[in-house]
């Protein structure tokens, strides 16, 4: 039996992926470049492209090709491509067209309702809209779940093969460490901070040197501004954005490093697998592990900030901190804050845990939208020791639920857990890692990530890729140990 | 009989046009934003999009819809849409899908090869790529020509209904005026020039004020840099690019005005006809008439440069010319130069005549790529009286052939001829035009262009739109008279 059916399938998938990449370019353009009045026209363009892609994803020839393929004759990439293609086809054909249309319409309209409600600190104004979106996503989950867990059905769009039960245990095991750390740090004197403002061009000179330090390939990407930093694109065209807050240079610096972490993963992905399912990122959790490790385990390490101190002196002159150790303490300043995206390493996963618990309860029907604000505020005060002062600092702060993103939040913490595992093993494999970081050299670390994660793309299930890299089934223990050690030292606990 | 077939057809055309607009965004991105290594991936994206668009353009349901439509019941736009849809369908069904895909792939990849060859002044490095593209375009022309002229078959993509024989006569009629003018001017003292260099930011401040003067809508467009200035996009997202040459501020200023002329046409196009055939530009010649009129008949007029002199003083300080009349003479300086895009009004059409002759000979098989550089250099020396010093000043200067644009060049001169016709009539209709220009006010002129050209979109054949606007079949006489009068006065001939 020849495998011409496989070749036909692969060509079909690669063309579809090329169209999906175009969608990514349009999204980037819309966020970074598009003039204001172009919005209506862009909506028509997106709809036309989306319809084209949907027709290709649900092409009735796909199951025929699946049936004709001699799976045993396929290599590892071929098997992965077939597996992922089947998974995607099944997912895409289970959702009735009317539901998909209604979801697209509702989530697009909801974003503005959410933004207004947030601006007015009025959760009640958003609640009916959220109820509708939640209802539609629960219907979608029911189509996908085959009688299984509704939340898992949504989670698996972002984290294939993951089970929320396992995730809950994994993330939940962090809570005692984090709340304990938070409590002990709160009694210590605060870390220093930079109080001086710095203009955009000065911040961007440092940001570009930070991107350089991680080997960001400027000929395969670019760095621009957007309201919310993001990375987009694939392989040899992987772009990043950052933002500049004159009063907080670290917002720009660590957003840049974070997005560089995402983009280096994409830039390193095997070119020979480009636009095939096996050649994509393994999962959102694995993606996030790359950005968080560069941002935190490396970028916020004592060794790296020692080098960064010199760079900042060169580019910014006297910036108000006089020793590398002060900079190290400043970039690791722990502070109970309301906002997830501004959270330090200690508080960040507490933010995620709460959202994970709330959204999975909502999807399963165990928590009603009417009760959400109250439960949010109770949980926050319990976990953070501070009462929420207003909805824009609480339940209304994130865009995710308004655009229907349920099942996405836990991948952030999973990324942190994976980063903890990978970094612990990397440190064992490269004993002089700190010596390199002290000189701003990340070549050894990036080569390790490339060999152990980037090169693996989506050839295996995400958890298996991490397990192969670290030699065991991943747990939260290395992350907990890293945080405990780092912050005990920093805050003299 | 209902016209539901027409409604179905129109929806199909509008979705196709939205995908074509996406192609425009990708092209803009490639020229202005894309990182260098993104080229290969972009070629795949372009090919996937092109295949999708080609399938829609050749959809077998199209002839059924055509047959079911009650044409008599359609309004003017409906009739134009049906006419253009039929023309496009006929054109597109003649090209095999593989050829269309291969052309998209090859031209996308060729552009970077051309840019590198130009940077290295190495025509041989580009020749094999050009041979491939020429071969593909000749194959395409053979599919389209039905045994007729190969070159006309390509020309009609840019100038519907035009015949190269007629064009050759129209353009050729200019040659005596141009060579005569050039000869007489060569014996006169040269016009003044600006010798001082100016940095990019200073030049761009002036460029933005020039765009403002012509009412460019910044919320429906943007201005960036590219190697070769261009305009792209439609309606509420019509973007332009320019370039900065520190030693020649007029390159930046007049490229900007030129592209603004294109973009104002697009920005003014009737929104209710957006993404329909009737709502597009009439032809490249008409498009070019808008850019050339703003650039030359208005932008290089004595009245407009009087206002521009004040703007330049405000933004650039002392720039070396002390009177408005000196600026008027400087922007109309006549000089035999190598570069088409820098050519004065006297030499410009001589550049086009040469390219028109060379490319029609290549398409007809009368000139080989191997001989192109030599023939270019010979022809140039004959027509301009100067020897080409290097390929970047000669055969490698234009992007057109690298992206497969054969049949496009003559539309530049047709645009000049149309601009000559339109401006002569506009002057009769608005006697105090010069008074407005002297204050940098183009509102009356732009309103005239909107009413007589932009609002007409592609509701009629291009030549008929110009004929309606000027009251007769267009000829080259007004352009020749304008050039003769202007340069006789300027050079005291």
Give structural notes:
Two copies of one chain form a homodimer. The first copy, chain A, has 21 helices and three strands. With 493 residues, chain A is mainly alpha-helical. Chain A folds into two domains: 144 residues, no CATH class; 346 residues, Neurolysin, domain 3. The first copy, chain A, has a three-stranded mixed β-sheet with strand order 1-3-2, with helices on both faces. In chain A, strand 2 and strand 3 form a beta hairpin. In chain A, helix 10 runs antiparallel to helix 13. Chain A is globular and about 65 Å long. Chains A and B meet through helix 1 and helix 2 of A and helix 1 and helix 2 of B.
Task: Please give the structural blueprint.
The structure is a homodimer of 493-residue chains.
Chain A: H1 4-32, H2 39-57, H3 61-68, H4 76-94, H5 97-119, H6 123-145, H7 150-155, H8 164-172, H9 175-186, H10 200-213, E1 223-225, E2 231-234, E3 237-242, H11 249-268, H12 284-298, H13 302-316, H14 324-331, H15 345-363, H16 369-384, H17 409-429, H18 433-438, H19 443-452, H20 462-470, H21 477-490
Parallel strand pairs in A: 1-3
Antiparallel strand pairs in A: 2-3
Core attributes:
homodimer, about 500 residues, mainly alpha, Neurolysin, domain 3, 2 domains, three-stranded mixed β-sheet, 21 helices, 3 strands, about 5% strand, globular
How are the strands of the largest sheet of chain A arranged?
Answer: 1-3-2
Q: How many β-strand stretches of chain A? A: 3
* Strand content bin of chain A: under 5%
| Secondary structural class of chain A | mainly alpha
Q: Largest interface, and how many residues on either side?
A: A-B, 40 and 41 residues
Mean pLDDT of chain A: 96
* CA distance, first residue to last residue of chain A: 67 Å
The name of the CATH architecture of the largest domain in chain A is Orthogonal Bundle
Name the CATH class of the largest domain in chain A.
Mainly Alpha
Number of helices of chain A: 21
How many whole angstroms does the radius of gyration of chain A measure?
23 Å
Order of helices and strands of chain A: HHHHHHHHHHEEEHHHHHHHHHHH
Low-confidence stretches of chain A: none
Q: Which of globular, elongated, flat, extended, rod-shaped describes the shape of chain A?
A: globular
| Number of structural domains of chain A | 2
Q: How is the biggest beta sheet of chain A arranged? A: 3 strands, mixed
Q: Could you please say which CATH topology of the largest domain in chain A applies here?
A: Neurolysin, domain 3
Oligomer: homodimer
**Level of helix content of chain A?**
55-70%
